[in-house]
């Protein structure tokens, strides 16, 4: 039986000195509530990660969940894999997230082996991979590090392997970009967030989350050698893509 997560009220009261957003124990405690109320289509993306893993996982290969947080994508893959001797490697640099992720993995019994690692995803070796997931992770890396990480993923993917990348997007047309931002804020208001919460969280994130455009992502995939890429899901300025080697 899963314990209901605490309600996200981290930005409900005025914060005198706003620091940068960090994935600490406070965030980990409310993360399921935060993500469901903040990211449109999140549950659809998690479900589809499992569907894609079912299609692309090959026997005796590794699957990676880079920036695994509490393990939602890891568990979705694990529930759907139907081939033998797969190993899921879940990585996060937040000790609070890793601790809770390990707990969730232990509570769900399945044949597929899962290893949860506390580390910087930029330091992880990618080897013999059939599936790699970056679920709202790349946007938190320094822009200079993104192509290097994706190049390493490409090299570590087996032929026919898939990268699943979920991100917040920006758009070149300013009017469209602002409208999609406003619609996202409407989504958060509809889920019970106040104007203060929306404003303070946006301030906390502005230095640590720098999204790319969909065009930038697809151009990068092509430059690195991926044969196919597509945006398979989008709701407002959030979405998910795949790239196939």
TrEMBL record:
Domain Methyltransferase: residue ranges: 65-161
Summary of subunit composition and partner proteins: Homodimer.
Catalytic reaction equation(s): prephenate + S-adenosyl-L-methionine = carboxy-S-adenosyl-L-methionine + 3-phenylpyruvate + H2O
Known EC number: 2.1.3.-
Family: Belongs to the class I-like SAM-binding methyltransferase superfamily. Cx-SAM synthase family.
Gene: cmoA_1
SUPFAM superfamilies in the record: S-adenosyl-L-methionine-dependent methyltransferases
Protein name (Swiss-Prot/TrEMBL): Carboxy-S-adenosyl-L-methionine synthase
Species assigned in the record: Vibrio stylophorae
One Pfam family cited in the UniProt record for this chain: Methyltransf_25
């Amino acid at each position: 039986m899963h314990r209901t997560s605490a309600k996200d009220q981290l930005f409900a009261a005025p914060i005198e000195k706003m620091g940068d957003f960090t994935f600490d124990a406070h965030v980990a405690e409310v993360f399921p509530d935060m993500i469901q109320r903040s990211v449109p289509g999140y549950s659809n993306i998690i479900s589809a990660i499992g569907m894609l893993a079912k299609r692309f996982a090959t026997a005796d290969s590794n699957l990676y969940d880079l920036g695994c947080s509490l393990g939602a994508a890891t568990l979705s893959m694990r529930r759907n894999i139907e081939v033998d001797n797969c190993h899921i490697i879940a990585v996060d640099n937040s000790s609070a997230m890793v601790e809770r992720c390990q707990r969730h993995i232990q509570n769900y019994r399945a044949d597929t082996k899962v290893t949860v690692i506390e580390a910087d995803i930029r330091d992880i070796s990618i080897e013999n991979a059939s599936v790699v997931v970056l679920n709202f992770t790349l946007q938190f890396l320094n822009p200079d590090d993104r192509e290097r990480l994706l190049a390493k993923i490409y090299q570590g993917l087996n032929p026919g392997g898939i990268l699943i990348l979920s991100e917040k997007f920006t758009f070149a047309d300013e009017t469209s970009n602002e409208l999609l931002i406003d619609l996202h804020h409407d989504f958060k208001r509809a889920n019970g967030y106040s104007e203060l919460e929306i404003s303070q969280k946006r301030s906390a994130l502005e230095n640590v989350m720098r999204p790319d455009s969909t065009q930038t992502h697809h151009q990068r995939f092509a430059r690195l050698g991926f044969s196919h890429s597509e945006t398979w899901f989008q709701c407002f300025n959030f979405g998910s893509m795949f790239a196939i080697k």
